[in-house]
Amino acid sequence: MEKTQSLHAYIKEEIINRIKTGVYEKGEQIPTELMLCEEFDVSRTTVRAALHQLTLEGYLVRQQGKGTYVAEQKVKQTLSSTVETYSEQIAVQGKRAEITLVNLEVLPANEWIQESLDVNVSDPIQRIERIRKANGETTQYEISYIPWGIAPGITKQQAETSLYTTLKEAFGVHIAKTVEHIEITLADERISKQLHCEPGLPCFYIETIAESTEGKKIEYSRSYFRGDKTNFVIERNYPWREQNEGTD
């Protein structure tokens, strides 16, 4: 253990290593608090602190009266360039994807929507609330805004599939670029209700603006991802080029 590392942080790291190396397998019950106390020669308070953090981060699931188990593997989603839809990304991981429409309505654009989508105040905007699930578990809550003039009359059936595929196939609009801003937030009462989690759970929050091939802003969205159910993969490709002799 590093000198600057607390006891509960050390125990947490050790348990994560055991999960990742298969010592503790998915769905397996880990040793009891008492057994961990004896193994690491620490107090129950220290063990509980480590287990609490691991539960919040989605590595463990604690079942009242039964014990603590290794959680299902988190859903991986790609932030780098990809043409795969949500369903395709989830299917590769052996999971069943599901998109459910929560609400679909047309509202007049206000000032912040005007700024995000380059529309006029009071222009009709479709507000689309959706839930995404993997194997029946809610992982994401998303609110999308699409101008009526871009794709008039998006239906429930279309909203419960890939919106980008719908825009391309039904309205002839191709998404060529997205700009995404990611932050960490805590689920408030509204978000926790939609994500079926406890208030205060750490979540990824992503704001996205999608542009067409003509550079027109097509969609603005706000998405909340359960931090205990989701992680992100970022892949970068660096073009190889021969360096000039004598340079760093």
From TrEMBL:
Give the UniProt keywords, A-Z.
DNA-binding, Transcription, Transcription regulation
GO MF term (any one): DNA-binding transcription factor activity
What domain of life does the UniProt record list for this protein's source?
Bacteria
Stretches assigned to the HTH gntR-type domain: 5-73
SUPFAM superfamilies registered for this protein in UniProt: Chorismate lyase-like, Winged helix' DNA-binding domain
**What Pfam family does this protein match (any one)?**
UTRA
Among the record's GO biological process terms, what is one? Answer: negative regulation of DNA-templated transcription
Q: What is this protein called?
A: GntR family transcriptional regulator
The organism of origin for this protein: Radiobacillus deserti
